[in-house]
Recover the amino acids of this structure.
């Protein structure tokens, strides 16, 4: 590789990496700015009571604004999160509503039956070997 080719290759690589880094940084800052604006809007709407005129205006603005944090977002990720939360909630309710005393009695009975059956088989097989 010649001097000129190496020089231009290095400059191209360096400027490409610099451009991609700055582009990523700019996008991250834009997203952070959006999140901060949404949080500030939520906090302001919670603290201040709107006047009747601003309530009508905010309803119109609310319908027109796409970055409103109160607007429900329908996406596959959100649907999966909702489904997961429903499953966890139903599992917790099931665990909470189980009569654990009856489960304990049932398990103890099954273990006692298996234990006695195992020892009957051991006694039966040891008795046959002696005669």
């Amino acid at each position: 590789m010649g001097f000129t080719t190496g020089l231009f290759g290095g400059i191209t690589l360096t400027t490409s990496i610099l451009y991609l880094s700055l582009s990523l940084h700019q996008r991250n800052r834009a997203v952070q700015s959006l999140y901060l604006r949404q949080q500030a809007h939520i906090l302001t709407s919670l603290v201040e009571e709107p006047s009747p005129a601003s309530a009508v205006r905010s309803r119109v603005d609310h319908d027109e604004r796409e970055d409103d944090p109160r607007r429900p977002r329908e996406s596959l990720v959100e649907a999966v999160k909702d489904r997961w939360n429903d499953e966890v909630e139903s599992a917790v309710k099931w665990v909470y509503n189980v009569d654990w005393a009856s489960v304990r009695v049932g398990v103890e009975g099954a273990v006692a039956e298996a234990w006695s059956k195992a020892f009957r088989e051991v006694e039966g097989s040891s008795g046959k070997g002696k005669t």
